[in-house]
Amino acid sequence: MKKELTFTLNGEAITAEVDPKWTLLYLLREVLDLTGTKEGCGYGECGACTVIIDGRAVNSCLFPVMEAEGRSITTIEGIGLKDGSMHPLQTAFIDEGAVQCGFCTPGMIMSAKALLDANDKPTEEEIKDAIEGNLCRCTGYVKILDAIKSAAGGR
Amino acid sequence: MTGYEYYKPKTIEEAIKLMGSLEGARYIAGGTDVMVLLRQKKIAPRCMISLRNIADLTRIDIKDGLRVGSAVTHSAIEENEHIKKRYSALNDATTHLGSRQIRNVATIGGNICNAAPSADTACPLLVLDARAIIAGPKGAREVDLDDFFLGPGSTALEKDEIVKEFVMPPFDENTGSAYIKHTRRQAMDLPILGVAARITISVKDESEVRCRDMFCTIDSISNILSRLKEEGLKCEDARIAMGVVAPRPIRAKKAEAALKGKIVSPELFEEIGNIAAGEAQPRDSIRGEAWYRSEMIRVLTKRALIKAIDRVIRPDEAIYPERLW
Ligand SMILES: Cc1cc2nc3c(=O)[nH]c(=O)nc-3n(C[C@H](O)[C@H](O)[C@H](O)COP(=O)(O)OP(=O)(O)OC[C@H]3O[C@@H](n4cnc5c(N)ncnc54)[C@H](O)[C@@H]3O)c2cc1C
Ligand code: FES
Ligand code: FES
After folding, report:
1. With a CB-CB cutoff of 8 Å, which residues 19-48 of chain A face chain B?
2. Per-residue pLDDT tens for B36-68?
3. Residue B319 pLDDT > 70, yes or no?
4. Cys bridge to A138: A100, B138, B260, B315, which one at CB 3.0-4.6 A?
5. Do B50 and A64 touch (CB under 8 A)?
6. Mean pLDDT lowest among A28-42, A121-135, B26-40, B285-299
7. Burial code of B311-324, b = ≥16 C-beta within 10 A, e = fewer?
8. How would you class A155 by CB atoms within 10 Å of its CB: exposed for 0-12, middle for 13-18, buried for 19 or more?
9. Residue range A102-122: average pLDDT?
10. pLDDT category, B317, cuts 50, 70, 90?
């Protein structure tokens, strides 16, 4: 049976019809067409589905859609600046060559954004801690760390 | 996936009543175990009763000891400075559980009620003498955590019951605790073995341990223990718990008894490690073989104990915490 939900998505209040058995990831990708958020494993292991809920990075593949009610959710589509330009993390990922196939990138950037929003001068250890739940098969992580450090420095 | 209805009660009483009235219902907290089981088609609940929106379950209270609500997330525990200082073993477990994303939603109650032999918060709660406060249709009751675990996935919870919170006694400055999670990789891994220890110490005639500086060096554990022996450092009380060595997390009670009241020394710690290893019944599994786990219990029991002693001797933030224990 469908239920109506109201929450804030990328800064705007929205109302959506959902089936209680959906995950938040399903709602985002299959219904709202926000396909920037990826599904890798579906088991909380890879972090490709990371979104920010009330300021914290969360695996949307494990998040029951019914818990979205009343919360503020940010996806990769919602982090660009008001003037239409990219978020400093996005620019840094490109400049540092931290994107190869790009599948992990949205999740990686959302984890990094949750960190930088709470702590604008993170240590390398804190950066590693923030992205420990994000797997990347391509880059070897070094350039991703560089990109996050450079975005933090440039803020 | 078969469908289910999703309920979001605001009080414990409402949740228990719902559980009693609905067919095929299941409690869900952070959902990091439940949602995985669901996706693997290992469970097919008709209703989910969420515990996430019950304010009484999400509180941490540090008056006269420690009370941690069952729906408190691992991140919230990790960020609590009082827990880090006085209940360090619990902080050790929550900082290395899953990933940042998992810790942001997964709860301590879910970890304990799921009752995996590898549950990271179980050994710390055992050594911190935690009791589970349980609410149910017949009222409230208390269960010592040591009586809570029955086997893999099996607990003392009866039909419709909810764990409300975990209660721990206060510990003074002479008590320290630690949890060591032994994994193949640092992040996102379940333990091959987990060992927690809590120790209360006293020093003969003097208030200060003179060999304190040794903890700031890379000197060996046995050298440090020899110095502590010379200084007459006595173990007043101790707890040791081990995970992934039996169908449920267990206390090493014989090792605890052998430690209590003794002056610490390299020989004593060697013996304690051996006794603890003798109390475990590890099995071969994909994460490690039984003989290896037995060997590592000896090593990690010593390490967890000295890490706990270190925390009493160097409570100071500037040098606290990390030696590579
Ligand atoms: C990628 C990944 C990595 C993980 N890594 C680790 C790890 O390193 N270490 C570790 O120990 N675990 C790990 N886990 C397992 C899991 O995250 C933890 O066990 C977590 O603490 C479960 O909490 P939860 O709130 O998500 O539980 P849920 O999934 O919501 O619930 C778990 C079980 O407990 C019951 N339950 C929950 N709360 C209560 C309550 N208050 N009263 C009665 N019953 C209740 C539920 O009905 C369910 O059966 C990992 C899981 C994933 C997906
Ligand atoms: S898809 Fe959610 S963690 Fe992999
Ligand atoms: S860039 Fe390919 S997975 Fe990270």
Report:
1. 19-21, 23, 42-45, 47
2. 999 999 999 999 999 999 999 999 999 999 999
3. no
4. A100
5. yes
6. B285-299
7. bbbbeeeeeebebe
8. exposed
9. 97
10. low
State the distance from the centre of ligand 1 to the C-alpha of A45, rounded, in angstroms.
14
CA distance linking residue B77 with residue B93, whole number of Å: 10
Q: Report the domain count for chain B.
A: 3
Q: Is A87 helix (H, G, I), strand (E, B) or coil?
A: coil
B residues 80..109 contacting A (CB < 8 A): 98-102, 104-105
- End of a domain among B125, B146, B168? B168
Q: For chain A, which domains are there? A: 3-78 (3.10.20.30), 88-151 (1.10.150.120)
Q: Taking CA A53 as the corner, what is the angle to CA A48 and CA A54, rounded to the nearest 5 degrees?
A: 155
To test the ligand 3 pocket, which listed residue (A138, A141, A142, A148) has its Cβ within 8 A of the most ligand atoms? A138
Residue B186 has pLDDT above 90, yes or no: no
Do B38 and B109 reside in the same domain of the chain? Answer: no
Does residue B277 register a pLDDT over 80?
yes
Whether B163 and B278 share a structural domain: no
If you measure from the C-alpha of residue A146 to the centroid of ligand 3, how many angstroms do you get, rounded to a whole number? 15
Atom of ligand 1 nearest to the CA of B119: 11
Q: Is residue B323 one of the residues assigned to a domain?
A: no
Per-residue model confidence as pLDDT tens digits over B116-157: 999 999 999 999 999 999 999 999 999 999 999 999 999 999
Its pTM stands at: 0.96
Nearest to B113 by CA among B46, B60, B37: B37
Residue among B35, B99, B104 with most chain A CBs within 10 A, to mutate: B99
* Domain extent at residue B204: 175-313
Q: Which atom of ligand 2 is nearest to the CA of A133?
A: 3
Using CA atoms, how far apart are residues B23 and B16, in angstroms rounded to an integer?
A: 13
- Sign, Cα dihedral of A28, A29, A32, A36: positive
Instruction: Give the CA distances from residue A62 to residues A34, A65, A112, B120, in Å, rounded to whole numbers and listed in that order.
Output: 17, 9, 20, 20
3-state secondary structure (DSSP) of residue B297:
helix
Distance from CA of B7 to the nearest CA of A (A): 9
Between residues B323 and A120, which one has the greater pLDDT?
Answer: A120
Comparing CB atoms, the residue among A21, A61, A133 nearest residue B99 is: A133
Final residue in a domain of this structure, among B152, B168, B184? B168
CA distances from A109 to A47, A80, B289, B299 (A): 10, 12, 38, 40
B157 and B243 share a domain?
A: no
What count of residues does chain A have?
Answer: 155
